[in-house]
Design brief:
With 242 residues, the protein is of the alpha/beta class. The protein is built from 10 helices and 7 strands.
Protein backbone atom coordinates (compact mmCIF):
# COMPACT_ATOMS: atom_id res chain seq x y z
CA UNK A 1 0.00 0.00 0.00
CA UNK A 2 1.53 3.29 -1.05
CA UNK A 3 0.62 6.97 -0.79
CA UNK A 4 2.39 9.72 -2.63
CA UNK A 5 4.33 12.62 -1.15
CA UNK A 6 7.42 14.74 -1.75
CA UNK A 7 9.87 12.79 -3.87
CA UNK A 8 13.51 12.08 -3.10
CA UNK A 9 15.39 12.88 -6.35
CA UNK A 10 15.89 9.61 -8.23
CA UNK A 11 19.39 10.67 -9.27
CA UNK A 12 20.56 11.01 -5.64
CA UNK A 13 21.66 7.95 -3.68
CA UNK A 14 19.34 7.02 -0.83
CA UNK A 15 21.27 7.07 2.45
CA UNK A 16 20.21 4.07 4.56
CA UNK A 17 20.86 3.33 8.23
CA UNK A 18 20.31 -0.33 9.24
CA UNK A 19 19.24 -0.96 12.85
CA UNK A 20 18.98 -4.47 14.29
CA UNK A 21 20.50 -5.94 17.44
CA UNK A 22 21.72 -9.06 15.58
CA UNK A 23 24.89 -8.76 13.52
CA UNK A 24 23.89 -11.59 11.17
CA UNK A 25 20.60 -9.83 10.35
CA UNK A 26 22.32 -6.50 9.72
CA UNK A 27 24.83 -8.16 7.41
CA UNK A 28 22.03 -9.96 5.56
CA UNK A 29 20.04 -6.76 5.08
CA UNK A 30 23.11 -4.92 3.79
CA UNK A 31 23.71 -7.68 1.24
CA UNK A 32 20.09 -7.52 0.10
CA UNK A 33 20.07 -3.77 -0.50
CA UNK A 34 23.49 -3.92 -2.19
CA UNK A 35 21.59 -5.18 -5.24
CA UNK A 36 20.24 -1.65 -5.75
CA UNK A 37 22.42 1.03 -7.30
CA UNK A 38 20.14 3.68 -5.76
CA UNK A 39 20.85 2.82 -2.10
CA UNK A 40 23.99 3.23 -0.02
CA UNK A 41 24.31 2.03 3.58
CA UNK A 42 25.81 4.85 5.64
CA UNK A 43 25.77 3.15 9.02
CA UNK A 44 24.34 0.51 11.31
CA UNK A 45 23.15 0.33 14.89
CA UNK A 46 22.45 -2.41 17.42
CA UNK A 47 20.84 -0.46 20.29
CA UNK A 48 18.44 2.41 20.86
CA UNK A 49 21.28 4.77 21.84
CA UNK A 50 23.29 3.76 18.78
CA UNK A 51 20.28 4.47 16.56
CA UNK A 52 19.96 8.02 17.87
CA UNK A 53 23.72 8.60 17.66
CA UNK A 54 24.00 7.18 14.14
CA UNK A 55 20.99 9.12 12.86
CA UNK A 56 22.63 12.29 14.14
CA UNK A 57 26.07 11.40 12.73
CA UNK A 58 25.09 9.99 9.32
CA UNK A 59 21.89 11.93 8.52
CA UNK A 60 20.22 9.04 6.66
CA UNK A 61 17.24 9.44 4.37
CA UNK A 62 15.78 6.17 5.67
CA UNK A 63 16.16 4.30 8.96
CA UNK A 64 15.47 0.57 8.50
CA UNK A 65 14.42 -0.31 12.04
CA UNK A 66 13.91 -3.79 13.45
CA UNK A 67 10.56 -4.10 15.21
CA UNK A 68 12.14 -5.63 18.33
CA UNK A 69 15.35 -3.64 18.61
CA UNK A 70 16.34 -4.63 22.14
CA UNK A 71 13.36 -2.93 23.77
CA UNK A 72 9.57 -3.15 23.60
CA UNK A 73 9.28 0.66 23.48
CA UNK A 74 9.74 1.05 19.73
CA UNK A 75 7.03 3.71 19.61
CA UNK A 76 9.13 5.95 21.83
CA UNK A 77 12.17 5.39 19.63
CA UNK A 78 10.23 6.24 16.46
CA UNK A 79 8.93 9.39 18.13
CA UNK A 80 12.42 10.41 19.29
CA UNK A 81 13.89 9.93 15.82
CA UNK A 82 11.12 11.97 14.19
CA UNK A 83 11.33 14.74 16.80
CA UNK A 84 15.11 15.11 16.60
CA UNK A 85 15.54 14.38 12.89
CA UNK A 86 12.25 15.05 11.07
CA UNK A 87 13.86 14.50 7.67
CA UNK A 88 14.67 10.86 8.47
CA UNK A 89 12.02 8.43 7.26
CA UNK A 90 11.49 5.33 9.43
CA UNK A 91 10.78 1.95 7.82
CA UNK A 92 9.91 -0.70 10.42
CA UNK A 93 10.96 -4.26 9.60
CA UNK A 94 9.58 -7.37 11.30
CA UNK A 95 11.54 -10.56 10.63
CA UNK A 96 10.23 -12.58 13.58
CA UNK A 97 6.56 -13.39 13.04
CA UNK A 98 3.20 -11.78 13.70
CA UNK A 99 2.66 -8.08 13.04
CA UNK A 100 1.52 -6.26 16.19
CA UNK A 101 -0.08 -2.84 15.73
CA UNK A 102 1.46 -1.74 12.45
CA UNK A 103 -1.25 0.93 12.36
CA UNK A 104 -0.13 2.38 15.70
CA UNK A 105 3.48 2.58 14.49
CA UNK A 106 2.43 4.40 11.33
CA UNK A 107 0.38 6.84 13.39
CA UNK A 108 3.39 7.44 15.65
CA UNK A 109 5.55 8.49 12.72
CA UNK A 110 6.83 5.45 10.83
CA UNK A 111 6.68 5.90 7.06
CA UNK A 112 6.47 2.20 6.29
CA UNK A 113 6.13 -1.32 7.65
CA UNK A 114 7.48 -4.55 6.17
CA UNK A 115 6.27 -7.90 7.48
CA UNK A 116 8.40 -11.04 7.65
CA UNK A 117 7.21 -12.44 4.31
CA UNK A 118 8.79 -9.67 2.23
CA UNK A 119 11.00 -10.39 -0.77
CA UNK A 120 14.27 -8.69 -1.72
CA UNK A 121 12.39 -6.67 -4.34
CA UNK A 122 9.78 -5.56 -1.81
CA UNK A 123 12.49 -4.48 0.62
CA UNK A 124 14.20 -2.33 -1.99
CA UNK A 125 10.88 -0.96 -3.26
CA UNK A 126 9.84 -0.05 0.29
CA UNK A 127 13.10 1.83 0.94
CA UNK A 128 12.77 3.70 -2.34
CA UNK A 129 9.11 4.56 -1.75
CA UNK A 130 9.55 5.97 1.76
CA UNK A 131 12.68 7.88 0.71
CA UNK A 132 10.59 9.61 -1.95
CA UNK A 133 7.95 10.70 0.54
CA UNK A 134 5.44 7.86 0.18
CA UNK A 135 4.11 5.49 2.80
CA UNK A 136 4.62 1.76 2.32
CA UNK A 137 2.95 -1.24 3.93
CA UNK A 138 3.53 -4.87 2.95
CA UNK A 139 0.80 -6.09 0.58
CA UNK A 140 -0.07 -8.84 3.07
CA UNK A 141 -0.95 -6.17 5.65
CA UNK A 142 -2.54 -3.53 3.43
CA UNK A 143 -6.04 -5.01 3.34
CA UNK A 144 -6.01 -5.55 7.11
CA UNK A 145 -5.06 -1.94 7.78
CA UNK A 146 -7.63 -0.58 5.35
CA UNK A 147 -10.43 -2.71 6.78
CA UNK A 148 -9.53 -1.51 10.26
CA UNK A 149 -10.15 2.11 9.30
CA UNK A 150 -13.87 1.52 9.04
CA UNK A 151 -14.49 0.67 12.67
CA UNK A 152 -13.40 -1.24 15.73
CA UNK A 153 -14.98 -4.55 14.76
CA UNK A 154 -12.43 -7.35 14.89
CA UNK A 155 -9.66 -5.06 16.13
CA UNK A 156 -7.64 -6.15 19.20
CA UNK A 157 -8.70 -4.79 22.57
CA UNK A 158 -5.36 -3.09 23.21
CA UNK A 159 -6.03 -0.55 20.46
CA UNK A 160 -8.11 1.38 23.00
CA UNK A 161 -4.96 2.02 25.06
CA UNK A 162 -3.09 5.31 24.94
CA UNK A 163 0.44 5.23 23.55
CA UNK A 164 1.95 5.28 27.05
CA UNK A 165 -0.39 2.53 28.27
CA UNK A 166 0.54 0.46 25.22
CA UNK A 167 4.25 0.90 26.01
CA UNK A 168 3.70 -0.24 29.60
CA UNK A 169 1.73 -3.25 28.35
CA UNK A 170 4.61 -4.27 26.08
CA UNK A 171 7.18 -3.79 28.82
CA UNK A 172 5.13 -5.79 31.31
CA UNK A 173 4.76 -8.49 28.69
CA UNK A 174 8.54 -8.81 28.59
CA UNK A 175 8.58 -9.60 32.31
CA UNK A 176 10.20 -6.32 33.34
CA UNK A 177 9.78 -4.96 36.87
CA UNK A 178 7.94 -1.78 37.88
CA UNK A 179 11.27 -0.11 38.68
CA UNK A 180 12.80 -0.98 35.31
CA UNK A 181 9.70 0.15 33.42
CA UNK A 182 9.78 3.46 35.29
CA UNK A 183 13.46 3.96 34.41
CA UNK A 184 12.86 3.03 30.76
CA UNK A 185 9.98 5.49 30.37
CA UNK A 186 11.37 8.23 32.62
CA UNK A 187 8.45 8.18 35.06
CA UNK A 188 7.96 7.14 38.68
CA UNK A 189 7.01 3.58 39.76
CA UNK A 190 3.77 5.07 41.11
CA UNK A 191 2.93 6.36 37.62
CA UNK A 192 3.66 2.92 36.17
CA UNK A 193 1.27 1.44 38.73
CA UNK A 194 -1.40 3.90 37.57
CA UNK A 195 -0.88 2.85 33.94
CA UNK A 196 -1.07 -0.79 34.98
CA UNK A 197 -4.43 -0.19 36.65
CA UNK A 198 -5.76 1.52 33.52
CA UNK A 199 -4.55 -1.38 31.36
CA UNK A 200 -6.27 -3.92 33.60
CA UNK A 201 -9.47 -1.88 33.56
CA UNK A 202 -9.56 -1.34 29.80
CA UNK A 203 -8.53 -4.89 28.85
CA UNK A 204 -10.46 -6.62 31.65
CA UNK A 205 -7.32 -8.20 33.10
CA UNK A 206 -6.89 -9.01 36.78
CA UNK A 207 -3.19 -9.66 37.41
CA UNK A 208 0.38 -9.17 36.19
CA UNK A 209 0.33 -12.74 34.89
CA UNK A 210 -2.77 -11.95 32.83
CA UNK A 211 -1.06 -8.86 31.38
CA UNK A 212 2.00 -10.91 30.41
CA UNK A 213 -0.16 -13.64 28.88
CA UNK A 214 -2.15 -11.08 26.87
CA UNK A 215 1.02 -9.42 25.52
CA UNK A 216 2.50 -12.77 24.49
CA UNK A 217 -0.72 -14.06 22.90
CA UNK A 218 -1.04 -10.86 20.85
CA UNK A 219 2.63 -10.93 19.78
CA UNK A 220 3.44 -7.58 21.41
CA UNK A 221 6.82 -8.74 22.70
CA UNK A 222 9.85 -10.30 20.97
CA UNK A 223 10.16 -14.07 20.93
CA UNK A 224 13.57 -13.77 22.61
CA UNK A 225 13.92 -12.43 26.17
CA UNK A 226 14.19 -8.67 26.51
CA UNK A 227 17.71 -7.28 26.49
CA UNK A 228 16.94 -4.67 29.13
CA UNK A 229 19.24 -5.26 32.10
CA UNK A 230 17.85 -7.22 34.99
CA UNK A 231 18.42 -6.05 38.55
CA UNK A 232 21.48 -7.65 40.07
CA UNK A 233 21.31 -8.89 43.62
CA UNK A 234 23.60 -7.05 45.98
CA UNK A 235 25.64 -8.87 48.65
CA UNK A 236 23.29 -7.39 51.26
CA UNK A 237 20.14 -8.92 49.76
CA UNK A 238 18.60 -11.52 52.02
CA UNK A 239 18.29 -13.85 49.06
CA UNK A 240 22.04 -13.71 48.60
CA UNK A 241 22.80 -14.62 52.18
CA UNK A 242 23.39 -18.12 53.35
Amino acid sequence: MQTTGPRHPASVLIRLLVADDRLVVREGLKRLVAASSEITVVGEAATRDEVLAQVRATEPDVLLLDLFLGTPTILGLIRDVKRRHPGCRVLVLNVQGQDPDARRMMETGAAGYLSKDHSRRQLIDAIQQVARGASYVSPSLASTLISGLGGAGGRPRHEVLSTREYQVLCLFGSGISFKQIAAELGVSPKTVSTYRSRICDKLKLSSNAAIIRYAIEHHLVPSAPSTLPRRRKSPTDKSARR
